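U., I forgot to send this yesterday:
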Amino acid sequence: MRRVDLFLISCLIVGASVSASAGTGFPAEQRTSRYLDSVRQEPLLLLAFLREIPKGGDLHNHLAGAIYAETLIDFAAKAGLCVDRKTSALLPPPCDDSTGKPPANSALRDPALYNQMIDAFSMRNWNAARESGHDHFFATFDKFSSALNANMGGSLAEVASRAASDHLQYLELMHTADGMQAALLGERLGWSDDFGTLRERLLSGGLKNVIASTRNQLDQDEAEMRSILHCDAPEAGPGCAITIRFLYQVLRGLPREQVFAQILVGFELAQSDARVVGLNLVMPEDWYVPMRDFELHMRMLDYLHGLYPSVHISLHAGELVMGLVPPEGLRFHIRDSIERGHAQRIGHGVSVMNERDPFGLLREMSQRNVLVEICLTSNDVILGVHGPEHPLAIYQQNGVPLALATDDQGVSRSDMTHEYLRAVGAYDLSYTDLKRMARQSLEHSFLPGLSLWVETREFSRVAACEGDDPNANKLSKGCRHFLDGSERAQMQWKLEGDFARFEKRF
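Result:
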């Protein structure tokens, strides 16, 4: 019997017992909430429930870290790459097994090497006694990155398919889509303390060509993804239904002239290509250059935000713990990212209670409606932060909007369902909490258009769609007109329909 069938049977059994004990007439949302409460201590039933729940969007997902190691080995084998038997790092050909540099495809016939590579490319079997989670996690990328370069279409197909199986509908993928062209241009043209001069030098020195080639590459990658998923055929894969947008990923650990060039290309791409909806600064926040140049990066963002005020910004901030950096390094990154870096969303935010005036900052985040992208699995494996040490509950109590996210699900060996599972297990979240997070993920997406919601405390709909049924075959003229004018509202309307169908099972 299929897992979904077992899940539906369990829903009917518990639904019947709830009706018998509580009487009839309970709204579907309340019955669904009662079912979740009934399976909290039943791990397999809880997993089945959370697998099927509609989840909205994943707003914090690094494309390079989202690919599972098994796929990376396949990519490496097809590309003719070699592997270092000692480190498992992928290397360019020629390969020579006699020198410890066999072809990567030999791992397909060598179980020991295959498993060694999976462990090296991910957190599987990570040994805390030999290496910190932080160091093992970030070391994986240099080992497998060469397998990704020519396989972005295949990577997009994998993340779209996994999102569909997780009952997501929207992805914002962090991706350095220009393949480092902007960084190399910045290195060649050099630095200037005058941001205006530097911007003009880049725009006149080849950045416009970088933007054009990046857009062409995105066309090719998306076409390859659609081909792999058979999106134009009757047997189209479920991943074809996932809406994908990109955040240009700036590598903040690079030299300052390269970081500025990447930030600039992110703003320019977001202004010229609807698929690129914003930008984000990535790489470990605790590394030397990101710590040393943090204030400089905020000034860069502040300057360019003034020139491109409509471009969206989400920033990694507060992915830190005491001891990873000196105490003073914990006290200002989240606040400065919001106030000076113009971040509309914050990724991680783990160190919020180490900031100066943390409760004032929490009030500010609530008032400004700054969402925190909560990445429970990576916060655990990288920082060792979990359970009551994580500020998720504090954010909740202070009215800061939240959405669960996967971060680097391939490296972490996780998915969105297991992020939900962690959240329910560690923080006793209710069904309405989960529904709120899913709704907030779309509310705070960088999709264009007006929101379906007048407010997000009780989630009251706009007047045009107030009386309409998300699963009705026909909408009122006013609601149809409103939805036609907003991609964001269309995505939110679909989520409401998915929730209504999900809750009918109970």
